Amino acid sequence: MQNNTRMLLACGYEDTGGDLCANTRIVAWKMTATPGKAIFLHGTGHSIQNERPAWLAKAIVEFLDGP
Q: Which of 2, 8, 52, 55 is 20 to 30 A distant from 46 in Cα terms?
């Protein structure tokens, strides 16, 4: 939570194995000093790259082009 490097964090709400997305959301809210963006996707599980490849590619490009 002390990360100060800009990061893109994403998880799917349907990724319930080990409560991965639930725990990711909890940690994301605590990362108040970390610049970047956190995105939580409804209707998506563990494999965002397989389930939403075009969306993920666009999100990565936009993130890399951003400040």
A: 2
